[in-house]
Backbone:
C-alpha cells in the first residue's frame, strides 16, 4: 500500500465534536496507517487521544513526524488493559461524541461524516457502527464482516453475541460516561459485556456502507480464542441467569 501523507494541521477546536480513542499496545508497523486514516477524515472537527498502554516496541516513534495539534499522546508507563484505557479516554473526552479506533485498523475517509450524520438525524440512537472489510497483515482484502443494520437485527440473539464491530463505534459521550466499560475488563470481551448489559435500554445501528478495514492476523491464536469464548460464555450465563 502506498504511503499516505497529509499537510500539517494547525487549527484546533476548544470543544471538538468528536473525541477519538485509540489505546495502543505494541502497535508495530500498522500504527502509522491507522493514525493517518484519522488525519485524512473528511470531517475535521475531532481530537485523537492516543493512549499508550505500556508499549515496549517504540511504535510511537513512527508517528513522531505527523504534526497535528488535534492529536494528543498520553502515557504513564503502565499496562492496565484496554477497558481501563477506554474509560480513561472517556474521562478525558472533550467531544460531544466518542469514537473508537484500534491501532492496526484503517478508517475510510468518510467514516466520521457518515456516522455523525446518522447519529444527528436519529437522536434516539446511542451508538452506531459501520460495515467493515477484512484485511490481512499485508493489507490484502480478505472479505467483509457480517453487517446487521438495525437495533433489532443487531440485538436479535444476545445469547449468541452481537455483530457490532467494536473498533468502528461512535456514540454519545454521555452514553459512554453513563455506562462505561467493566473494569477490570473481561478477557477480550469488554465490548460484548457492555452491549449485553445495555442493549435492552439503548439503541444501536450500523451505517450501511463499508467505511472501515478490520485487520486480522494470518496465524490464529487458538489459546486466546478459546479463552475469549469461555469468558464470553460465562458473561452471558451470569446475565441470563439473573
Residues:
Amino acid at each position: 500500500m502506498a504511503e499516505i501523507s497529509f499537510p500539517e494541521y494547525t487549527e484546533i477546536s476548544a470543544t471538538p465534536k468528536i473525541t477519538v480513542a485509540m489505546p495502543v499496545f505494541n502497535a508495530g508497523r500498522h500504527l502509522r496507517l491507522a493514525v493517518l486514516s484519522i488525519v485524512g477524515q473528511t470531517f475535521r472537527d475531532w481530537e485523537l487521544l492516543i493512549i499508550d498502554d505500556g508499549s515496549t516496541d517504540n511504535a510511537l516513534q513512527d508517528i513522531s513526524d505527523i504534526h497535528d495539534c488535534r492529536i494528543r499522546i498520553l502515557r504513564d508507563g503502565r499496562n492496565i488493559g484496554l477497558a481501563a484505557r477506554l474509560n480513561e479516554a472517556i474521562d478525558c473526552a472533550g467531544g460531544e461524541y466518542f469514537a473508537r479506533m484500534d491501532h492496526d485498523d484503517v478508517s475510510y475517509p468518510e467514516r466520521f461524516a457518515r456516522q455523525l450524520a446518522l447519529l444527528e438525524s436519529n437522536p434516539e440512537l446511542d451508538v452506531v457502527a459501520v460495515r467493515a472489510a477484512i484485511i490481512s497483515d499485508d493489507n490484502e482484502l480478505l472479505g467483509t464482516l457480517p453487517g446487521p443494520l438495525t437495533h433489532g437485527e443487531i440485538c436479535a440473539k444476545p445469547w449468541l453475541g452481537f455483530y457490532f464491530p467494536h473498533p468502528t463505534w461512535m456514540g454519545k459521550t454521555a452514553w459512554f460516561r453513563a455506562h462505561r466499560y467493566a473494569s477490570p475488563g473481561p478477557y477480550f470481551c469488554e465490548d460484548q459485556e457492555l452491549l449485553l448489559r445495555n442493549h435492552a435500554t439503548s439503541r444501536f445501528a450500523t451505517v450501511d456502507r463499508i467505511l472501515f478495514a478490520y485487520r486480522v492476523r494470518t496465524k490464529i491464536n487458538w489459546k486466546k480464542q478459546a479463552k475469549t469464548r469461555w469468558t464470553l460464555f460465562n458473561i452471558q450465563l451470569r446475565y441470563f441467569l439473573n
Notes: Residues 1-5 have pLDDT under 50 and may be disordered.
